[in-house]
## 1
Amino acid sequence: MSEPANALPAGAGGLPEPSGRPSPAAAAPVPDSILDVVTAGLGRREQHPKRVIVIGAGMAGLVAAFELQRQGHEPVVLEAQNRVGGRVYTMRDFAPGLYAEAGAMRIPRVHTLTLEYCKLFGLKMRPFVMGNARTLLHVAGRTMTFADADADPGRLPFQLTEAERGKTWMQMWDEATAEIKQAYDEAGQAGWERIVQQYDDMSLREFLEHKGWSEGAIEMYAILSFREQNMNTAVIEQFFELIGRSFEDMRYIEGGTDLLARAFYERIEQCVRFGAAVKAIEQDADGVTVHYANAAGRFSERGDYAICTLPFPVLSNIEVSPALSPSKRQAIRELRYNASTKILFQVRRRFWESEPYGIVGGTTATDLPIRRVVYPSAADPDSERGILLASYTWGQDALRWGSMSEKDRIEEALEDVAKIHPEIREEFEVGASHAWFSDPYAGGAFAQFEPGQATRMQKHILAPEGRIYFAGEHCSLYHAWIQGALESGIRAAATIHSLPAPETARELITV
């Protein structure tokens, strides 16, 4: 039977195949064929509906189940926790009306797929303030504003060469990466391929050394850009976000990022099984059986296909039969997940908005263990109380905080914040925290390539295994972003939608 006139273009699910190597198409806005899914669905075709077991109710699993159900298929979502969203986790155990983001908290303007779903569900967006000249720098025991440091970089305690003196870290970074932006702007895909070929085996530190930066300049960049613990990761991770303009013109969802997860859930509520910890996955020529357990016992669900959205550290503990291919097993073992820990303070009064600070939004940078303090991007005229992201750390810094009890985290973070904002001792009320590397349902905050992994591993990360398909931010080049989870979930759902349906007793429908 020929495809209906409104079917998606040919290909796996009508969507462009993701390449095994990063491409500018992934760094730029997503293809129209993916964006169109938000309003038009996966494309109509006459077939038997498929039963699809979706493992995990994070953003990738939610969007996959949502789009499959919209086309008449039968998704069953198995979620081990008692909530949806995965690493979209809005904490609401504060005073009434207050909340904080333990996970995803901002959406770049260029992440059109994410914003289109927010629009579809009627979610309100507000600007997320990234840069703010009034925020502070606290390095080597000295505190100043970013405005002061930018006006006179010589005030910063870094040992720079004569050629480096008088420049901000951002000016130096822009100079170092000018060739990257130029190559992409002038040659697109071909330019990006040359960038990957030249720099895929380099870490961020090695790239800066290659550019002739002094140790003092590298230290300045590392501390002020919050990347000191990521200097040995693949530099093309930074290039991808650079040419993709990932940190420009940010937005956040008013009321909490989990409202997006809830919006998906409300439309597939009957498909979701909570407390369903997957223990094993079996497949044969006819389908996939997923075994899971909860407090009541052990159970199984059988489907025509499965979409596994679990982070690889979690998937590594699940028995799969027949065994996954050697290349997939190697990818699961080797893919690096970055640690991240957030420590949050509820305060009686948002003192940072008053003089002498006058701070609304933005981030304070430090060389203290807390590393950075992130301020709310909007002032609430109805309440003086607020939530301060007192510490946001990655890598080894996050692991250090994660090794502590929550009580110790909060007490030590208070000591650090008081060095910058002495008012915190009077205004602090309660604290909370979340360490993603210690989270048994995550095993880390987000995937992040080491040098060489993008070229060597990406195609194996994405590849299906028989009737099992894979999704999640790790299956996209949008590592750490909601966009990556959504894109990968749509691709998996679209591929299954396009596959032949089993000849069963199910009614033949147009889906």
## 2
Amino acid sequence: MHDSYISAPYILTKLKASQEMVQGMSYWTYTDLFEEPGPPTAPFQGGFGLLNPQGIRKPAFFAYKYLHALQGDSLRTTDPQAMLATQGGNVTAVIWDLEQPDQKVSNRSFYTKPIPASAAAPVQLRVTHLVPNAAYRLEVHRVGYHANDAYSAYIEMGSPKELTAAQIAHLNELTRDLPETDKVVRSGPTGTVEFTVPMNSNDVVLVKLKRSQGGN
């Protein structure tokens, strides 16, 4: 499952559950290129890295990238599938929906086939105590099925033993992490912004709400 999009919310769930219990936690490893198992035999073979042997970003990579975006002071939340932070009047949130799939076979049999996501409840966000009647830039990034999901695309290619330069370029293009939402919203007279983020099973979203330059 290390290559699957399901690994991203799984990682975040474990990190969230270990808060205030451990001093630190590290992922093993940064890339699939390390000595213990010997040379990789395929572009995706369930390796432990955040990157595959060709340097293509796996969904797990984005779990840590999104966590890194949580700069400033943590905001306490009782939601077990969310982490929030504020800095300089801006708000950042990482929100996910871990749903363990119905798995009746071994990992290799299960995760070497497409695992489509299903619809999940949307996330309703309400941010208060903002500057009244001000412009904020709302940005949403996502990792999930067919979103920053190189492995599903690789399976749909037929799981080739070797990738061509064009295939590598295509998979890198699919994992550029471009925002799916990038727009300006206004806080209104009460300094409140409300919006809805659609979700599918095992999605992870990074939401950024930042005061626009100029302030109005």
## 3
Amino acid sequence: MAARIYTDKDADLRWLKGKTCAVIGFGAQGRAHALNLRDSGIKVIVGLYPGSKSRAHARRSGLVVFGTAEAAQRGDIIFLALSDTQMPAIYAEQIAPNLRSGRTLLFAHGFAIHYSTIVPPKDVDVVMVAPKGLGPMVRREFLRGRGAPALIAVHQNPSRRARQKALAWAKGIGCTRAGVLETTFRDETETDLFGEQAVLCGGTSALIRAGFETLVDAGYPPELAYFECLHELKFIVDLIHEEGISGMRGLISDTAKWGELTVARKIIDQTVQKHMRLALREIRSGKFAQEFIREMNTGRARYATLLREAEKHPIEKVGARLRGLMSWRMKTKNH
């Protein structure tokens, strides 16, 4: 059964009118949500701790900034634009004591609610608006008159108006222009973690490194291996993003098509899917979350070691040198 897609006509900004939307945090998502809501005519305040460097950035953007606790106290809808690791402590110390009955807690990811690192009181609405794009993309698409697609979910609904508020927020940040799907906190969390681990971050980077190592071990120059296994990936991903997999296939050479159709299944085979299913089981059982939370709370030694090891891979040194030769990259990045 296909999921329902909500668009602009299904959402009404009046559910946010007359309310104060408190954005706690001003990182990539917090900034995008705050500015897009502001530009949609919604009253927005930002909550940041006193020494935050983001205070100056938020004020330069024309936003009113308060301390985290005061922003939570003033907000009718409180958006926790914080990382999964920061969120529980900030919520417990500064948000929860200032939560009043009838308020709304809003999240951009379901982790904290699904894995109960945050347990809100029963008399507040708890909703999620999760754009399917990084913060800069959410802002950029909004300014172009378009939008990033998003997911919404309702976890608690004592007001009986939680869905309307979530859709209004999605409209305020531009997401209903592209389409919004309704899901659950559980499904968003589990599919998001799986996508990151198996395909988008973990799977893709592992595939790149494996291809690079295979070519270098066979005697090919590492620069050539970098271009073939990493640099050109962007072109293919852009085609897939714009046209889908079949659309991409229609735009590449017959040689590339034949290789994709005949060789890919020998590499990404049933063994890979077996490991994917195991990763998904550990996400769904809570094992991954438990291990992650324990690592974050006990010094992060293994986390730091794994990062150091990954950063020492030869592809990083080769890539840094080659990217440094592409002076146009910096000019594009700065505009």
## 4
Amino acid sequence: MTFELDVHTHTLVSGHAYGTITEMAKAASEKGLKILGITEHSRNMPGTCDDLYFMNLHVVPREMFGVKLLLGAELNIMDYEGTVDLPDRLLKRLDLRIASIHGNLYRSGTIGQNTNAVLQAMRNPRIDIIGHPDDGNFPMDYEQLVLASKETHTLLEINNNAMRSKMRRNVKENIITILGLCEKYEVPVILDSDAHFMTDVANFDHVLPVVETVGFPKELVLNYSAEKFMQYLAYNREREGEQ
């Protein structure tokens, strides 16, 4: 089985990445991907694009080099109530929405406070994925998150870039915990590169060995099927319509 998608990547408009949309799409095509998600950092991340960027994404083709493009945002979880930093009127325009905690914007609290921050973001019907929920600098109750993932149809991300970061704590151990709970409760996950440069698209060199070592079921990894991932998103869009 080969990977068909990578849906958490950044271009130079995020402020600290270095490729264009065209270059990232070409790299995805060369890697044999069917779907590429480009999720720029939202407004509170230093150096990122203005809200107008997200408003104007409709002008960008949604297929390049034979790769389907999903254009969206990596939102910042700002507080213990799970507030994200783009208004609903913009979220509705996006193909894909990831919500993440970043240490320069979020003040770590207790396990309960950090867990609640992510749980509330997951209960936002606009959110599709929780980005890198593995940083031990923000301790959480992972069993609650996995159960909420199943309940809210919000994917937990297994982030390759997180395992390479020297600033994050206990990432590998936390990923193993998340995977164990996801297998126990039969909850799917998404592997993402979090690429900030073209050569890193679809690079899972750090997380894939962990996934394989723990024997995590392939049927619960959505990267192996573009069709299953798009069905997952379609369900979320239907859910939004019911809100």
